[in-house]
């Protein structure tokens, strides 16, 4: 079968590799139909993803149709269309024991730490393969369940509820998934970005207020919208040291700040800033069994993944697709690869 391999930074190729086989009783063999490109795939391509090892069969956002099932598979059957959760955990460390397998001590993500889904076939455990009703959801959005699971995880970590006012900093694909999940929960959302094109997409997909921080003062906008209280929930999907500092400073008393950042550079935050307002400042990583909630949102229409798909390429053009994403950040959102 063919797969997309990154041999080392800036060396990507579509190559013939052995087709994977069912090894465990609960495995399913999936013919991949769609994948989507994430910032971390671009990081692996550029050599800036600290977690990745090479050579790597990339891709952690993918789905397809079940072709074969192991003898212990209970629910899935050949022909089912599934999205695959890329999170793999040990099952017995403290995090796993307390139902937080997404931060397992030895967590691995397919396509980053081990081989992934940009291939004609993958094998995955049944427990990580979630069926989608294709009479309600177009097949070409199945790979987008994973990025929406990031938004869903953020909503849980930030306790986003009906009536909350939420600031989402950054209108990239992840910011938009956070916004749509928050809106589906009945919150109102302000979003920021540097590019009007990204803000226009955010507005079209549901953001209540958008702020181009190159043109407007964010603090003034936040205070005007919240009658000077500050923002009850702030999600930082810009993820630079200063955005995290700004998130803490713009949060209201008793507010929540959720960061998605994987940056090593410290932010300057004094403890009094957290204590005075009794802020809950939390990280959100990957997802903790959020695929069913996301698929429910796709099926009932409260999440509209087609809106974040900005272009499509055949997987044999993966290099072209990645370069296109790198060269046109303001125009692209999610680039989807077809494996048909
Ligand atoms: N923790 C996790 O599980 C997890 C998962 C996925 C992504 N991430 C992280 O989330 C972040 C967002 O991911 P993405 O794919 O949407 O990335 P992205 O780069 O496409 O989006 C970031 C957006 O922020 C905008 N931006 C940059 N500087 C800004 C500023 N000062 N103010 C406002 N907007 C600004 C950019 O124009 C861009 O639209 C990345 O840092 C990524 O590493 C974390
Ligand atoms: Zn991703
Ligand atoms: Zn574990």
How would you characterize this protein structure?
With 340 residues, the protein is an alpha/beta fold. It folds into 2 domains: 2-148 and 287-338, Quinone Oxidoreductase, Chain A, domain 1 (Alpha-Beta Complex); 159-283, Rossmann fold (3-Layer(aba) Sandwich), CATH 3.40.50.720. Helix content is 26%, strand content 28%. The chain has helices spanning 39-46, 94-97, 145-157, 173-184, 196-204, 218-225, 241-250, 271-276, 291-300, 318-327; strands at 2-8, 11-16, 27-36, 56-57, 62-69, 81-84, 87-88, 108-109, 121-125, 129-131, 165-169, 188-193, 209-212, 231-236, 251-259, 280-283, 309-314, 334-338. Strands 3, 5, 6, 9, 10, 17 and 18 form a 7-stranded mixed β-sheet that branches. A 6-stranded parallel β-sheet has the order 13-12-11-14-15-16, with helices on both faces. The protein has a 3-stranded antiparallel β-sheet with strand order 2-1-4, with no helix packed on it. Helix 5 (196-204) links the parallel strand 12 and strand 13. It starts with a strand and ends with a strand. Bound molecules: nicotinamide-adenine-dinucleotide and zinc ion (ZN) (2 copies). The site of nicotinamide-adenine-dinucleotide has 25 residues, from helix 4 and strand 12.
């Amino acid at each position: 079968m063919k797969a997309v391999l990154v041999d080392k930074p800036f060396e990507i190729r579509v190559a013939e590799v052995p087709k994977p086989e069912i090894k465990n009783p609960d495995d399913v063999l999936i013919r991949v139909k769609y994948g989507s490109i994430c910032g971390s795939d671009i990081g692996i391509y550029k050599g800036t993803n600290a977690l990745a090892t090479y050579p790597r069969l990339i891709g952690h956002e993918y789905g397809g149709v079940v072709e074969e099932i192991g003898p212990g598979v209970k629910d899935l059957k050949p022909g089912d269309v599934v999205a695959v959760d890329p999170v793999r955990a040990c099952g017995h460390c403290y995090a796993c024991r307390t139902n937080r397998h997404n931060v397992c001590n030895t967590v691995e993500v397919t396509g980053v730490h081990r081989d992934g889904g940009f291939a004609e076939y993958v094998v995955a455990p049944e427990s990580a393969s979630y069926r989608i009703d294709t009479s309600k959801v177009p097949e070409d959005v199945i790979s987008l369940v994973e990025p929406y699971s990031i938004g869903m995880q953020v909503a849980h970590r930030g306790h986003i509820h009906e009536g909350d006012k939420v600031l989402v900093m950054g209108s990239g694909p992840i910011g938009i998934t956070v916004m749509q999940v928050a809106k589906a929960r009945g919150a109102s959302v302000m979003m920021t970005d540097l590019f009007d094109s990204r803000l226009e997409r955010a507005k079209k997909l549901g953001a209540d207020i958008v702020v181009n921080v190159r043109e407007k003062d964010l603090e003034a906008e936040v205070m005007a919208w919240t009658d000077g209280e500050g923002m009850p929930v702030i999600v930082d999907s810009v993820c630079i040291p200063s955005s995290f500092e700004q998130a803490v400073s713009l949060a209201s008393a008793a507010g929540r700040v959720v960061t998605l950042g994987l940056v090593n550079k410290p932010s300057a935050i004094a403890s009094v800033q957290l204590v005075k307002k009794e802020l809950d400042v939390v990280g959100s990583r990957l997802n903790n069994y959020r695929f069913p909630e996301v698929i429910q949102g796709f099926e009932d229409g409260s999440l509209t993944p087609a809106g974040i798909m900005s272009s499509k390429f055949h997987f044999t053009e993966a290099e072209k697709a990645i370069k296109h994403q790198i060269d046109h950040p303001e125009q692209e959102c999610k680039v989807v690869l077809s494996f048909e």
